[in-house]
Design a protein that fits this description.
This protein has about 140 residues and is of the alpha+beta class. It is built from 3 helices and 6 strands; from the N terminus they run αααββββββ.
Length: about 140
Amino acid sequence: MANKYILFIGLLSVLSSGCTLRDAGYTLGGAAAGGGIGYAIHHDAKDAVIGGLGGALVGNLAAQWQDKIDKNKKDKSYKDGYNQARLDIAKQNWNDNTGKDADGPQPLERTVLVPKDKENGVIYDQRAVAVEEDE
């Protein structure tokens, strides 16, 4: 008879929790443990039901505590990643806009168009030449 009460309390706890499967598992485990302890004390169905309700409450609180810990870890990871991305973007923008990177100033390279020319009887065609400038 007590087993029916324990199963009923466990099922009622799971259905009424409205949480994830892990939360329901914590609640059901707490209800089963509480019901078993309550029944073991006096071998009375009433004590089993009271123990089951108490165990379900403790199990549900443990599940909420675990969810809060997980949420805090995710929030911290998100903030860390967000801040690192902001730093990376700011550093890249600085390097792009100043022409510098972490290694120091880099020479600027410009392309200059050299016109067609004749020198000592040799004809040079028009061409583009890359010229490096230091700042």
